[in-house]
Amino acid sequence: MAQRVQSVQEFLQDSFYPLVAALCSEEAERIARKNNLGFCELVKPFCRLTSEVHMRDPNNQLHIIKNLKIAVNNIITQPPQPGAIRKLLNDVVTISQPAEGLVANVITAGDYDLNISATTPWFEAYRESFLQSMPASDHEFINHYVACMLVVSSSEPDPVEQFLKLSQEQHRIQHSNEYSYPKWFIPNTLKYYVLLHDVSAGEEQRADSIYEEMKQRYGTQGCYLLKINSRGSNRGADEQIPDPWSQYLQKSSIQVQESCEDGLHTVISNKNTDHFIPLDGLGNDSKDGLSNNFKTHPLQLDHTSDSGCFDGTDYLKSNASLHESKKTNTGTPHGMCLTLTDHDRIRQFIQEFTFRGLLPHIEKTIRQLNDQLISRKGLSRSLFSATKKWFSGSKVPEKSINELKSTSGLLYPPEAPELQIRKMADLCFLVQHYELAYSCYHTAKKDFLNDQAMLYAAGALEMAAVSAFLQPGAPRPYPAHYMDTAIQTYRDICKNMMLAERCVLLSAEILKSQSKYSEAAALLIRLTTEDSDLRSALLLEQAAYCFINMKSPMVRKFAFHMILAGHRYSKAGQKKHALRCYCQAMQVYKGKGWSLAEDHINFTIGRQSFTLRQLENAVSAFRHILINDSKQTAAQQGAFLREYLYVYKNVSQLSPDGPLPQLPLPCINSSATRVFFGHDRRPAEGEKQAATHISLDQEYDSEFSQQWKDLEEQVVAASNKSAVSNFQPTQYCLNRYSDNSRFPLGVVEEPITVEVAFRNPLKVPLLLTDLSLLWKFKPKDFSSNNNGESKELMTCGKDMIGAEVISEFLINSEETKMARLKLFPHQTGELHILGVVYNLGTIQGTTVLDGIDSSVGFQTGKYIPNGTSVRGRQDLEIQGPRLNNTKEEKTSTKYGPDRRLDPIIAEEMPLLEVFFINFPTGLLCGEIRKTYVEFMNVSKCPLTGLKVASKRPECFTFGGSSTILTPLSPSTSEHSSAYKTVLKHSTSVCSLMSSASSVDFGAGTGSETEVIDVPLPDSVLLPGASVQLPMWIRGPDEEGVHEIHFLFYYESIKKHSKMSHRVLRHTAVICTSRSLTVRATAYRSNALEDEKGEGDNMLVFVDVENINTSEAGVKEFHIVQVSSNSKNWKLQESINLSEDKDIKLANREKGKLCLKSVRCKHLLDDYTFADIIFGNEQIISSTSPCADFFFRSLPSEFRRTQTQQSMNTSQGTVKQSLDNAVRLIQKCSEVDLNIIVLWKAYVIEDNKQLILEGQHHVVLHTVGKEAFSSAQKQESPEMVLFNFFRPESTSVPARPSPDHLSSLIKTSLHYPETFNHSFHQKSLCVVPVTLLLSNCSQADVDVIIDLRHKTTSPEMLEIHGSFTWLGQTQYKVQLKSMEVSRLQLKACFVHTGVYNLGTPRVFAKLSDQVTLFETSQQNSMPALIIINSI
Prior knowledge:
Elements: H1 8-15, E1 19-24, H2 26-33, H3 39-43, E2 53-56, E3 62-65, E4 71-74, H4 82-95, E5 105-109, E6 112-116, H5 121-132, E7 145-153, H6 159-175, E8 190-198, H7 204-218, E9 223-228, H8 246-249, H9 320-331, H10 340-375, H11 388-392, H12 401-406, H13 417-430, H14 434-450, H15 454-470, H16 480-493, H17 497-513, H18 517-526, H19 533-548, H20 555-571, H21 575-589, H22 595-611, H23 615-627, H24 634-654, E10 667-668, E11 674-677, E12 688-690, H25 702-720, E13 733-734, E14 745-747, E15 752-759, E16 766-781, E17 789-790, H26 797-800, E18 801-803, E19 806-811, E20 816-825, E21 829-843, H27 857-860, E22 865-875, H28 887-891, E23 904-906, E24 912-917, E25 922-924, E26 927-937, E27 943-949, E28 956-957, E29 981-983, E30 992-996, E31 1011-1013, E32 1020-1021, E33 1026-1034, E34 1040-1052, E35 1062-1073, E36 1076-1084, E37 1097-1106, E38 1114-1126, E39 1129-1134, E40 1143-1145, E41 1150-1159, E42 1167-1173, E43 1177-1179, H29 1186-1210, H30 1216-1227, E44 1230-1245, E45 1248-1262, E46 1267-1268, H31 1271-1275, H32 1278-1285, H33 1298-1302, E47 1305-1310, ...
Parallel strand pairs: 1-4, 1-7, 7-8, 8-9, 14-23, 25-35, 48-57
Antiparallel strand pairs: 2-3, 5-6, 10-15, 11-13, 11-15, 12-24, 15-20, 16-17, 16-19, 16-21, 18-20, 21-22, 21-23, 24-26, 26-33, 26-45, 27-31, 27-32, 27-34, 28-33, 29-43, 30-42, 34-35, 36-37, 36-46, 37-41, 38-40, 38-42, 38-44, 39-41, 44-45, 47-49, 49-53, 50-52, 50-55, 51-53, 54-57, 55-56
C-alpha cells in the first residue's frame, strides 16, 4: 500500500508557503551561473529554516513558526500556458518510476497475497509539481508574491544605480496595467536589496564599501551582502563538496524549458492520447505551444532539454532518451565555485532575510489588516457586510440562481473588505497561525456566500477546511463537507478543474490520515473525467490504494480501479505506469476463473511491454493468453495470435543466433507421446498381405499386450532351452501404458517414429511449417571389444541422425491431431529426443485452389500463410508413473523414470518381413486350407533360428520334417488337394496302416507345443533373400470369429550385447461357420478273438451330422475317410457298408458308421495310423497336414484328461497301494483311440463349384462313454456342467465303481447254437461248453467261477425250464496280465427248449489285494442255446 514519507501536516504546510520574487541583474546572474545555477536555483536548497521563528500576532501574543519554508522564484510576466503545465506534469510522472530492487509490501486479504508498491513517488512528484505550477488567481492570495529580492553584483560599475533600475522595473511590473502577471500580495511589496559578491574575482573592499552605502540608503534590515564563489572554478577539483541541488534539479530535469523552442516543437495528440483540454477553462487551442514572452517557469532550467514532443505516444520509442537526459542533468556538477563556507553564507542569508525582512513585513501587514478590519467591526451584523458600498462604490446587483451557476459569481475590487479578510487569512495561514486563519476564512466564507461569489466562497471553504485540520490540538473536527462543497463549486459552477483537483488532492490526504479510505476513494473517483487522462489515472490509482488499505481490504475493487488507472495511463502515453498498474491488478484476477478479464490484462501487458521494448515480458503475457482455455471469439483469438506472432518475431530478431524459445501453441500432451521403432507396415498387394506386426494405427490393449509378452517369453525359453530369469519383452511401440522404465532399443538404419499429440485450444487454425524433432545424440560403440565406450565425434549431426521434416501441418480450430515425425539413426549410441521445432503461423482461410479443396491442402501444400510465422520449440517432458512400492513411496509423492524418448541405438540386426499369400478369412469349422507364407530378410544381416509361437497351434502347420521345402508356387497349386493322397489299390474297406512319431510334428516330447520351428532352407535366411513356405490353416471347431496370434522369432548369426533376438507379430482373423459334428463311442466286442486272430477288439460307432446352415453355400458333405490314431488300437474295417461309395450328408442329415478296431500286437512309442477309405483316394493320415493337426489338437485334450485322472487318483486316498489298485482297475476301461474323420464339402460360389476339405478329431478315453469332436456340444447345457462337477467336490471313493470292476475280466461262452438230442433214447442231454476268461488289466487277477445260479430276474423267468451244470460247482483260476484262459464245462438238459447258458457268476480280485474288490463279472449279452429232440 502506498504510503507517504512525510506526514499530512508537513505535506499541507509545504503545499502553501510565502512566495518571494527575485529580480537579478545580468552580472549577478552571470556570477551565479559559474556554478551552473541561476540565482533562484542557487538559494533553493537553503530556503527551509532550520530553527524556530517567533512573531507577534495582532493580539501581541507570541507565535512560534516551525520548519518554515519560503520559495524564491524569478519573476514571470505571463502565466504558464495549459499545454506547458500538462507537459510539465506528464514529464514529472514519466521520469518518476518505482525504484529498482525496492521491496514491496505484502498484503494478505482472504485468499490473496498481493505485492503492492510501498510508495508512489510518481504521484507525489506530480502533486508537488501540480501545486507549484498553479497560476496565481484573483480570488485568493496564497500564491501571490509577498516580497521581492533585487540582486546586483558588486562588480558592476554602479551597483546602487542598478538597484534603482531593478526597483523601478519591479514597480512597473506590479503597478502598471501592462502586466497582469505575476500577482502581488499587497501594493507596498517588501523590497530586499542583495549585493552579490564574487570572492574569487571581485574586490572585497569595494563590496564592503558598497554594502555600507546600501545600509545607509535601505537600512540594515533591508539589504544584505552575500559573498559566494570562494573557490576558483579551476582549482580544488579533488575536494569533494556536497551537492544539495541535485535532488531539486532532478525533479525538473525534463520539464518545460523545451517550450521555448515551440516554433519547432508542437504539442501533438492522437487517438492514443488525451486531447489537451485547457485546465483553467480558458479554452486555449490544444495545439498552442508554450509562450516565449515570459522569462522562465519556476521549475524550469535555463537550458533546453533533450526530449522532443510531450505526449510520448510513439509505441516503439525507447525510454533510453529519458535515462540519457537524466544522466546529462545529474552528471552536470553544481556549485563548483562554492565552498562549505559559501553554503553557510547562503543559508545565513535566507535566515537573515526571513528574520529581519520577510516576517516583520508579514507581521506588520497582518497587524495593519487587523486594525483596519477591527475599526470597521460592528457596523453590521456580519463583519464588513455593510461597508461593501464604501469599498466597492455600489452594491452588486442581484442575480438569479441560473446566472450564478453559469458564472463564477461577482468579482470584487482589490480594496473590497471581503478580500482584505481573505488576504489576512492567507497571511496567517502562511505563517502557521491556523486558528486566526480559520476564523478569517470562516468569516470571509459567509460574506462570499451571501454575495453569491461562488469562486471566492469555494476558495474560503477550501482553506477553512485545511486550517481547521492543521490547528494544533484539533479543537474542531475536520469539516469534510467544506471540501465537498468547494470541489463541487469549482467543478460544476466555476468550471475550474485545476482548483477542484487541488481540493481533491488536499482532502484525500487528510481523509486517508484519518483512515477514512472509503470517503477518500469516493472523492478521488469523483474527479476522474475525460478531460485529462493523466489526472484520472493518478486519482484512480490512489483510489485503488484506498480500497486495499481499508480495514477489510476490498481486493476486487482495488484490482478493478487499477485496471481503470492503467487504461488511463495508457491513453496518457504513460506506458510504464500503465504496465505497472495492469501487473498489480493481475495478481487478483490470475487463476480465479475470470478468463476474459485475464485475457484483457495479459493482452494489455503484452502490448505495453512491447512498446517499452520489454520483449520477454510481452512474449510471456501473450503466451498466457494463448495457452489458457480462452472463451474469446474466434476473431479475438486470431487478433491475439497475430499480436503474439508479431511480438515474438521482434524478440527473435534481437538474438537471431540465440537458443530457440518455447512456443505456447499448439498444446502438447506429452504423456500421450508414442514412440515406434521400425518401418511402417507395407500395404496389401492383391492376395499378398503383410504381417500386421505393430503400428501406430493400432490401439493399445493391455490383454493383448500381456498375451504377446507371454508368447515371447515362451519362445525365448524354448530357444534358450530354459526359462529366462529376468525376461524383458521386446518393445516396438512405447506409450503411456507400457513399461518405460528401461531404455528402449533402436537399430541402426531403422527409423524411429515419434507420434506427438498436438491440441489447438484456439478457435482459429494453426499452421505449423518445417516441423521436425529436436534431439541430442552421444555416439557409443556397443561391440564386444569396446562395449559402451564413447567414440570421438568425427561426423556432423546429419551424418549421425537423419530427421524427417513435415513441410506443412495444419491443426484446425479446437482440434487434437497427431504428428508422426521420424528419425533415422546412422550410428550406434545414446539418443535423447528433446522436443519439436517448428514455425508457428496461421492461414488466411479455407479456399479452393486449382480445383482442390482446402481440406486436402495438407497433402498438396496449398495453404496460404496469413501474416507472420515464427520459429520456436516445445520440449517433450514426460512424467513417469507414481511409485507406490515401499512405505516411503506410499507416504510421499515420487515418480519413476519414463525413458521412452531416450532410446539406445544398437548395432545392425536382421529384419524379417512376412507376407501371407491367399490367406483365408472365412473357413468351415475343421476345414483345411493350404496357403503360402513368404519370409523376406530386408536387412544386411543374415537371420537364423526362425520360430513361430502361438496360443492356437492347432490352427496352422508348416508341415513335418518330410515336407518338401521348395513347393510349387501358389498359383500352380491353387486347385490341388491340401492332403497328400494316393490312389486306392483295392475295393475293400479294410484299413491301410502307417506309423509316425509325434516328435516329427512338434508334439510328444514335453516341449512347449506353442513354439514351432519354421523349416527354412539351411535354417538361414540371407540378406535380401526370400523364401515361400506352405502353411496349412485349419478352421477352429467353434463357430465364430477367431483371432490367431503368430509371433515370429528370429536371431542374428552374430551375437549382440544389446539385442539378442527380434520378433514380428501377426494377428490373423478367421471367421468360421458350422460344418459337421462327430460323436463316437467304443464298446468291447464279445468275441475274444476275431477271425484273423488279431487279438482283443472293439466296436467303434461314429455318428456324423451335417449342422451347416447353408450360409456358406455348402451343398453337401462327403465322408471320404475315417482314420484312427493310437499307440494301442487301430481301426480294422467298416462293418456296416453294403457297397463302396461315398457317404453323402446333405443339410441336417446324419450318418452312422460302425467300425471294428483291434489292439495292436506290438506296443510302440510311435503312433499307428489306420485309414478306412470310402472314396477313390487314400489320404495318408500319418503325413502333413493331417497328422499335424491331429497332434496339434491332442495336447490340450491329454492335459485335460491327465489332470482329471490325477485329481481322481489323488483325492481321498487311504494309502498308496490302494491308489495303485484302483488305478489298475480303472485302466481296464480306458482306451487310447483317436478318430479322424476326413471330409469334402461341395460349395457353390459365383456359379462355380468348389471342393473344400477338412477333418474332425474325436478322442476316445473310456469304453462306453460318448466323445464329441466339439467341446461345445459337451458343455452346452449348464445344468449338466453343474451336476457333472458337483460330485468332484467330494472325495473320490476308495472303492472303484461297478463299471470299472465289471471290465476287469471279460468272459465268453463257446457252444453250439443248436444241439439235437434224442430224449427217447437217453433222457439226459449233456452239451460241452467252453468258458473263456480274459484278463483285461495289467496285473494278476484271481478269478472264482460259481456255477450255482439263482435267477431272479423277470427276463430269466420268462425262459421256461432249467438246466444244470455237471461237475465242479466252483472253480478258482489265476490269470496273468492280459492272459486268456479256457475252462471246459458241461451243461445237462432234460427236455427240449431254449436255454440261457449265461448263468455262471464270475468273481475277480487283484492277486495282491484282499477280497475288498471282489465282485461279479456280468456277461455282455445272453448266451442262448436251442435243444431239439430227434
